[in-house]
Design brief:
The protein has about 230 residues and is mainly beta. The chain has three helices and eleven strands. Strand 10 and strand 11 form a beta hairpin.
C-alpha cells in the first residue's frame, strides 16, 4: 500500500513521467464550468483542446519552453524534492486558467509553504489512502484536509478550495466567500503519470464539486499537424 510520503512524491513527479497526453476532462457540479473537453498535450509547449463533438476550441502554444531538468529521485523513480512547491518553468500550456496547470502537475498537493518559516512542509493531512482504478487505470485515492501551508498554483482556481486561501484571494471581495467550506476532499492521482485525475469536495456548500479527468493515451506520437489551426477565411 502507498504511504502519505509516496502520495506526495507522486504529486511532485508529473513533469518527468510523461511527454504526451490525450484525455477528456469535465467539472461535475460546477456551474461556472460547463461541458467536457478533449485535449492533446505535448510537452513542453503545445496543447489542442476540442469539444467532445470535435469542434476546435483552442490551440495553445508556449514558445521558448524547454524540457524540465530532472530533480533528485527516490529509488522508486518518484521525485524526492522540488526546488519550490510550484515552478513557472514547468507549467504545461494553459487552457482557461491555472486549474488546468495544477491538475496536470499537482505539486500543490505535495508541498506547501509554512506561513511562519517560509520553508516547504506537507500541504495536506491524509485521512485515508487506498489503491483504486480511475478510467480503468491504477490510481491512488486519498481523503485529505489541506493544512495552513497549502499553497495552490493560483488562489482563484485551486485544486482544493479552502477558507484560508479564499480569505487571502478575496480580501476585497468578501461576497465570494462560501458560507460553509468542505470538511475534506477526495483526491485521485494516476499512478503512471502523476496527473490529478479527480477531486471532489466532501461536505460544505460545494460538496461534490471538483473535476474528473479520463486519460485516453500516454506518450503516443503527436505530430506537429495535430496542433495546426485551420486557416481562417476573411
Amino acid at each position: 500500500m502507498p504511504t502519505p510520503d509516496d502520495f506526495a512524491a507522486l504529486a511532485r513527479s508529473s513533469p518527468w513521467r510523461w511527454t504526451t497526453l490525450r484525455f477528456t476532462v469535465g467539472w461535475p457540479h460546477d456551474p461556472w464550468k460547463t461541458g467536457e473537453v478533449r485535449a492533446w498535450l505535448r510537452r513542453p509547449d503545445v496543447c489542442r483542446v476540442e469539444s467532445l463533438d470535435g469542434a476546435l476550441l483552442q490551440v495553445v502554444r508556449e514558445p521558448g519552453r524547454t524540457a524540465a531538468p530532472v530533480p533528485g529521485l527516490r529509488p522508486d523513480g518518484l521525485v524526492a524534492e522540488r526546488r519550490r512547491s510550484w515552478d513557472h518553468d514547468l507549467d504545461d500550456p494553459m487552457y482557461l486558467n491555472y486549474h488546468w496547470v495544477a491538475m496536470l502537475d499537482p505539486v500543490e498537493l505535495a508541498d506547501g509553504r509554512d506561513p511562519d518559516t517560509d520553508v516547504l512542509v506537507p500541504a495536506l493531512a491524509l485521512d485515508s489512502l487506498v489503491e483504486v482504478e480511475h478510467g480503468g487505470r491504477p490510481a491512488w485515492e486519498a481523503v485529505v484536509r489541506p493544512t495552513d501551508a497549502y499553497e495552490p498554483r493560483c488562489g482563484c482556481c485551486p485544486l482544493l478550495r479552502t477558507r484560508t486561501i479564499d480569505l487571502d484571494e478575496y480580501r476585497d471581495h468578501p461576497e465570494h466567500l462560501l458560507a460553509v467550506y468542505p470538511e475534506a476532499f477526495r483526491v485521485r492521482l494516476d499512478v503512471q503519470t502523476g496527473v490529478c485525475v479527480s477531486t471532489a469536495a466532501i461536505g460544505g456548500e460545494i460538496s461534490g464539486r471538483g473535476h474528473d479527468l479520463q486519460i485516453e493515451a500516454v506518450d503516443e506520437p503527436l505530430a506537429d499537424d495535430v496542433f495546426v489551426e485551420p486557416r481562417r477565411r476573411w
